[in-house]
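ok trying this again, last paste got cut off
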Amino acid sequence: MSNSQFTPGVVPGRLSADTYAANFTDIAPPLDAHEARVAADRCYFCHDAPCVTACPTEIDIPLFIRQISTGTPEAAARTIWDSNILGGICARVCPTETLCEEACVREEAEGKPVVIGQLQRFATDTAMAGDRTGAHPYARAEPSGKRVAVVGAGPAGLACAHRLAMHGHDVTVYDAREKPGGLNEYGIASYKATGGFAQAEVDWLLRIGGITVETGQELGRDITLDTLRAGHDAVFLGLGLAGVNALGAEGEDREGVHDAVDFIAGLRQADDLSALPVGRDVVVIGGGMTAIDTAIQARLLGAENVTIAYRRGRERMGASRHEQDLAASRGVRIVTNAAPVAVHGNGAVREVEFAYTEDGPGGLQLRNETFRLRADQLFRAIGQRLSGAPEGLALEGGKIAVDAVGRTSIPGVWAGGDCAAGGEDLTVTAVAEGRDAAEDIHASLTS
């Protein structure tokens, strides 16, 4: 965002301090104890609950909701953490409307599911707030004498590290950034995880002991896979995705064109929101959650006109309809079937030219008809790619090829999360993959 000073119209401090504070408060205020008990009483406590199958971490949802209904939220939290050690952040950022809540029988019967995500947050927040002793709810097994390297301190890496520590292994987590947390710390909308919760949850997780975190350590720059393999009994790669896809549009190197992930990361780490530059006319290219989060936060920072442009129809957008509606409620316009073909301006972006598209049996086709949108700030949110994968790793679709438990083509090396092929790019999926890989690593180390 440093080049914003060269872009007229892109300025910081459009709003008052009170407005910034109000705009970035918790988007979904937590339930109180009474509200949680009432919400829990709506659950049918199904025997073969479809919500459990719909959850990538397979949390025993009926059990934890029953525990809330009987007044034992701490026990409910333990039920959640047994399957998803990052259940607190997942309760805030998971697209529950397309996962567990969409599968809820109340949704099918009444169009109003049990608020599983809010109940999960109530349980985990209550348990974490009530733990004043400093003790971790999980104890380490006797030291195994085995050492495991985890590359990436995001959801997959942290889930893997915690489960390995539970089994008594010594774990060193390496991460390229200054703070652990990965996507949870740097990649989600600020209004979804307020009050420094992402870091608080990481600190809580690490209290199990046996986990050392080394920040500022980038694979390929500061450490190599060969040295990690030589110094450890196993390696887990939870690299995430670092490279950002290009638009492929003429002029996309103009001033005022940014990667959406950098915008979100900068906002997440900002101490003073009024210092962040924002345009008057902002255009975001993409259709996933990153595009939605970028567009909404640009509006909350004071942008007057914000448009999301997506090359296919709305039903093909990666963001759920709930998130699309949330963006619309915040004044974001969504334009579909529009592909960027050129970025216009004299040095800095002034307009973005789009071609109308048709998505038929032959794939996406550009029509001859075009239109332009005014823009003094343009964000790319069209997906990321794996960059700098170690040599020797087999790839699949541009990501690390893995089997069902995360084993890669190199013996003793596992992978999971966004860098691994096959899974959905969701926090909860990354947690499940890290957890499952840890169990397989443990089995291989103790067989």
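PB: full thing came through this time. The chain has three domains: 33-130, 147-242+386-446, 244-380.
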